[in-house]
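Reference record:
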Amino acid sequence: MSTARASVSLPAADRWARLAERVLRALGDARAGALLIVATGAANLVAALVPGVRPLLEGPAYAALLGIMVISGVAAVAVRAPVAWREWRRPGPVAPGAGAVSVTVPALEAAEVAARLGEKGYRVRVERSRSRWSVHGVRRGWSRFAGIGSHLALVLLVAGAAIGAAFGSQTVFSLLPGDQALLDAPRPGFSSAVRLDALDAEFGPGGRPTRLDTHVTFLRDGQPVRADVLRVNEPGAFDGFLVHPWTYGPAARLRVTTLGGSALLDAPVPLDDERDGRAVGATELPSVGLTLGLVIADADANVLGISAIGAAGLVDATQLRPGETARLGDVEVAFNGFDAWVTLMARRDPGQALVLGGGIGLCVALAVAFWLPRRRVTLRPRGSELLVTLRGERFDRPAGELERLRQALGSTP
């Protein structure tokens, strides 16, 4: 006799539902998530170390990788959250074995056991089957969501860092008082800028700065929006950028004219280099074929050394104090005093909020998981006693909690 197995065709909606569930579980698999995080980190590392690769992070392939990684994190939460909810709201049995601890206590009725567990903070469910019964309980069942949330927080951290590396920008520029610069590379429609107004500094013994206040004005469409004071570790925020004062140095305010009085230069000249421990700088005067070399000859006396250099070599040299004027070759140089230049760094990081949120979420999730772990317990009659089986998390062996339950269940009401 032969038997034929009838094939049952599922409705299309059920087939699609099963397919969606398989895809969701595959995306939420911990191994897939770890592989995606490693791939994203490797892409960022290669972009940081290999010249010319960074622009690829702005392409669609990298954006797709980030999207899949985020979807994987969300899928992991979607797969595990219902299970965690059911275990919390409807405690299930705890089986003896590795990771579980057990103890026996005097026999009690199921209602009395449930009441005493409830007093100790357990959510309780009594399960009856004919003449047998068991009591299942869970304490701090909600803390399992912290473990699930830590996976999502880690995904947010990596995604935020990756977004910042791919789509963020960093611009460094030096300004003299009155100068201004865009906060990012020039592009149509972008007008966010900063203007340096002044550097207000105080110095203590040994020349160490005790106060460095960088006064700036933020501009949009060429119009002042607001003034701000930038300090060390106190950047200014404007149009999604953080503007940091990075370095600073002296500048010499010069007015250079021909012997006939025609102005060749009337501006601060930054002394942005160093030689033998002294600040030096230079400015060219192409119309008269000279280069002026500048050096702070005596910082305590505010003496500036100036050398005029032509095609044949040194033409003339002098030292001036603020307010003094001297002739060097065919030009006249007036030293009007010292000023300062400041190097600013403007940084835009679109992934910063994700990194911050992921970092806070990860810290909170780990704190809850380690200091407020979930505890599950099952009590079953065994002869004239009750067998108490308690299980904590994988990193936790709850011997102290077991003793607390033994005392609560073994004491006489």
Q: What stands out?
A: The longest helix spans residues 60-89. Residues 3 and 345 are 80 Å apart (CA to CA). Helices lie at 12-27, 30-49, 60-89, 110-119, 144-167, 352-371, 399-410.
